[in-house]
Amino acid sequence: MPKTGVMVCGHGSRDADAVREFLALAEGLRPRLPDYDLEIGFLEFARPVIREGLEALAQRGNRRILAVPGMLFAAGHVKNDVPSEINEFAHAHPDIDIRLGRDLAIDAKLLQAARARIESVLDEETPRSETLLMVVGRGTNDPDANSNVSKVARMLWEGMGFGWAETCYSGVAHPRVDAGLERAARLGFSRIVVFPYFLFTGVLVRRIYDQADEVAAAHPGISFVKAPYLNDHPLVLDSFAERVRGALTGDNLMNCALCKYREQIVGREDEVGTPQAGHHHHVRGGGHSHSHEHGHDHSHEHGHDHPHEH
User: Fold this and answer.
1) pLDDT at residue 307 above 50?
2) CA-CA distance, 47 to 39, in Å (whole number)?
3) Predicted confidence (pLDDT) at residue 113 exceeds the cutoff of 70
4) Start-to-end CA span in the chain (Å)
5) Strand, coil or helix: what is 41?
6) How many CA atoms are closer than 13 Å to the CA of 285, on its beta-carbon side?
7) Is the pLDDT of residue 289 over 80?
């Protein structure tokens, strides 16, 4: 196999702490990818830029480069900006095999990391049934990326046993943080956990915490708890390493990538490996109208043409 480099593509920030955390995450990846030459680069606001990082890998003799976006979801940066940088480099270096991996996306490990961050600030005095979880996303003009925040909130809500969950966004999308928290405060829960679903700190995360303090001051009867963002949790680093390996081997992404029977999903860990058994015996042969709503606890409609390998 040719000498292979890894390019971690960050967005970049004017905030020195955010850049420092990104660099720390990259350092945490090195021991997880000992066979690769690792480099980093940013789209904007910080150096080196992505092109500089790619050129450094090429100058060190890497004839294959695996580029991965250092971003949670695929919005404009992952779908347009990073691929544009990669394509320009590829055209200038036709002798180098460069491959772009996918975003971190919704991942079982990231959900476990999110749970750890949230649980780090919970006490057991207030029941989770009396707690509302507010998951705060970055917010983009891409509804696909925005909807992923809602899915994360739902999975954490059910998996961790909260009484309710809401989503809001720091910008672009609605509801914004202040409006979302004001609405949440009217729902009657005694505790609200504010969890920024972000990788790194920065102006936006600080603003989220500040807005949580402002809403808390207006509602002294509710306990507002600020959970830390994901940062370099070990499971986040593991997920990044998986994206690198996936760029090399090609991801086989099925519609059950987050299946509770395959992965240890938050709150459903004991269901991994559950034997497959049909629960639609009453409709075999097509002699039953399927117009009613089921009361089953899951709908396991996989698109595979092969059985699970638990």
Assistant:
1) no
2) 12
3) yes
4) 31
5) strand
6) 4
7) no
Contact 226, 121 (CB under 8 A): yes
Q: Which residues contact 96 (CB under 8 A, 6 or more apart)?
A: 58, 62, 63, 64, 65, 89, 90
Residue type, 211: Q
Contacts of 9 (CB under 8 A, 6+ apart): 40, 41, 42, 43, 50, 67, 68, 69, 70, 71, 82, 85
Cα–Cα distances in Å, from 57 out to 7, 167, 223, 307? 8, 40, 50, 42
- Using alpha carbons, list the distances in angstroms from residue 254 to 143, 215, 235: 22, 41, 21
Token digits for 164? Answer: 């309710």
Residue 250's pLDDT is: 78
Strand pairing category for 164-169 and 97-100:
unpaired
- Model confidence, pTM: 0.85
Q: How far, in Å, CA of 42 to CA of 4, rounded? A: 20
Strands (DSSP E) found in the chain: 4-10, 37-42, 64-69, 97-100, 131-137, 164-169, 191-196, 223-226
* CA Rg value for the chain: 22
